[in-house]
Structures are given as C-alpha cells and as structure tokens.
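Posted in: Structural Biology > Protein-Ligand Complexes

Title: Requesting predicted complex, sodium ion in pocket

I'd be grateful if someone could produce the 3D structure tokens for the following input. Sequence and ligand are given below.
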Amino acid sequence: PFVTLREVLADAERGKYAVGAFNTNNMEIVQAIVEAAQEERAPVILQASQGALKYAGIRYITAMVRAAVETSTVPIVLHLDHGTSFEQTMLCLKHGFSSVMFDGSKYSLQENIAATRKVVDVAHAMGASVEGELGKIGGTEDDITVDERDALMTDPDEAVQFVTETKVDAFAVAIGTAHGTYKGEPKLDFDRLKTIDERVETAIVLHGASGVPAESIKKAISLGVRKINIDTELRQAFTRGVQDVVQNKPGEYDPRKILGPAKEEMKAIIKEKMRLFGCSGKV
Ligand code: G3H
Ligand code: 13P
Ligand code: ZN
Ligand code: NA
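-- Reply #1 --
Done. Output follows.
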C-alpha cells in the first residue's frame, strides 16, 4: 500500500527501529528498492531529489512508484528529498507524493520556521507529511574546522521551537553526518542527538548515512533516529555492478545484462541496510 511518512514513522517509533529512505532515479533503482523491501518484509521510503526529478521527470518518477505499489504488498512512501521551494513541494503533492521535505536549513531560524510552516499547512490539509531540517548537513568535500562544524549542528533549544511551531512530521538533524563519502570515520555528536531526542517528540531523520559505520547507526537508532537516508552507497553498488560486467564481459552490448546485475548489487546493499535499521520483518 501507498502510505504517508507519518504512518511508517509512527510504527517505527512504537517498534524502536528506523525506516530506510533510499534515493531513486530510474526504473532499476525503483525495482531494487521495492524488491528488497518486499523480500525483507520492510516498510520503505522511496525519495526523489531535485536532481532525480530533473533526470527522470516527475511523471516518470510517480508512474514508476505507482507500478511498484501495484506489484507489492509492503508500505511504500514517496517522498521529496531536500525540496527547496514552496512551489516545488506543491508540485510534488499535486503529482501524488505522500510526503515532502522542505529544506530551509540555509535560512535564519525564523525564516525557516515560517517557510516550513507554510508547506506543512497545505501538506497536512492534503493528508501528506512533511520533513523539515534545522542545522546544516554538509557535504564531505566541505573543508571545515571542528568549531565551524559545531556551529553548523542542530541547536536543541532551537529544535524544540522549530518542531513546535512548524508541526513537521519528521525532523532532520545535523549531528556530524555529511552527504557523500567520508575521508575518515564520521564523528557523530551522540550527546547532542540524545538531548534533542529527549526534548523533541517528532521522529528524527539522519541524512548522509552512507559511510557511517554499523555501530554508529545502531547507536543513533537507540537514541531516537527513525528515518535514515542512503544514496551514495546505492550509487556505488550500482556502478560496481556495471563495471563488473563491462570489465569481465567486454563484448556485452545488451543493456539488460549490464543493468540487471547492477540492480542486484544495489538490492543486496539495501537489504543489508534494512536489517541494520531493524525494519526487516516488520510488515
Ligand atoms: O541529498 C542529496 C542526495 O544524495 C541526492 O543527490 O541531488 O545528486 O540527486 P542529487
Ligand atoms: P548519502 O549520499 O551520504 O547516503 O546521503 C543521502 C541523503 O542524505 C539524501 O538526502
Ligand atoms: Zn540529505
Ligand atoms: Na554520507
């Protein structure tokens, strides 16, 4: 069934596990994610970034996810990842997304609250969910000092104000993770996460989870994380699959024999993440 983010995260809170949110860009990725969810009996969030909407087009994204919903039995959410304008979130809701992220993290607290609240008002009236973000989740290429890094992290007092005033259904925090690959091991600020979780009832979202060691993921879930975003590790698995065929069967020219194995490689990673997140076997 096609469900909202709010629904799967409420179940995750009751069961104290996290739901995987995987970025999708084409048919093979949609299939890898949904087949993995079906085989693992796991609820799942498919998310499309602005890059994905530009690459595949919103009609293809929604049509592929509709086909996935029709051919599976697990709860599926279609979510906009890092939406940056009111118009874009509205377009996604109009096309049938059951959830949108409004990423106002580049604005001041007041502006972020006002803009996020505006999206929440409409989305809730339509029965859809909203994820907001406070604090800045960087890219790993951003070269910053420890003090600068601290300043970008989510402030617990501001977090309380943000979730209370916006009424978001999911809350993305900056606690030391970054989008993309990590140079060393990422250092997560678990004390900060614990403080935020104690003071905020809204489900917490961890972005940039590719490259975060399993032990840190488990600890983050034990401290309240309920949605975990993975993109980079899926891209790497897919590309590994493609390279494998291209290198070992240089005469291969059938795209299905190249993309098929790549999809399987990606599916294996997704299933591994679902077990790690504790959402396997929950539906
Ligand atoms: O958070 C960013 C996601 O990894 C999506 O990236 O905009 O290149 O699709 P993208
Ligand atoms: P990674 O690419 O590090 O997995 O981050 C994904 C993400 O946060 C998408 O919003
Ligand atoms: Zn992200
Ligand atoms: Na990452």
